[in-house]
Design brief:
By secondary structure, this protein is mainly beta. The chain is built from 1 helix and 9 strands; from the N terminus they run αβββββββββ. Strands 1, 2, 3, 4, 5, 6, 7, 8 and 9 form a 9-stranded antiparallel beta sheet that branches. It is globular and about 35 Å long. The protein starts with a helix and ends with a strand. The relative contact order is 0.21. It comes from Pedobacter frigidisoli. This is Lipocalin-like domain-containing protein.
Length: 125
């Protein structure tokens, strides 16, 4: 009985330690981001991300839900809906818009609602 219990503890410990810990990135979205690339597709799928030239533009996502910075000055607030979608309030629309996003420790990609493909890539500051 003791051997079976010991074997069960060892196997359980091994399985627990071998499980990959995942992070959905929800906490990582907060912070200051520098705009590095933009995508504007003409509607035929040929669009590619292009490097941003000129003065740097930033976007700050505060844990209070506020958005500041000059990269997207019309954005006011955001709310995380899930691991891929944000609800964003803007100065131009009375209803919030749904943006798709992907975040890692160092990068953020935002895809606003567009008829043609569009997107913005940021790096963490």
């Amino acid at each position: 009985m003791k051997k079976a219990l010991l074997l069960l503890v060892i196997v359980t410990g091994f399985l627990y330690s071998s499980c990959k810990k995942t992070d959905d990135g929800l906490g990582e979205i907060y912070g200051k981001w520098k705009l590095t690339e933009t995508l504007n597709d003409p509607g035929d799928g040929s669009g590619k991300y292009m490097r941003v030239k000129g003065d740097s533009k930033n976007l700050t996502l505060l844990n209070t839900g506020q958005i500041t910075g000059d990269a997207m000055p019309d954005l006011m607030t955001f709310r995380i809906l899930d691991s891929t979608r944000l609800e964003i309030s803007t100065r131009n629309y009375s209803m919030p818009l749904t943006y798709y996003y992907k975040v890692t420790a160092k990068t953020l990609t935002l895809n606003p609602p567009c008829i043609e493909g569009c997107g913005l890539k940021f790096i963490r500051q």
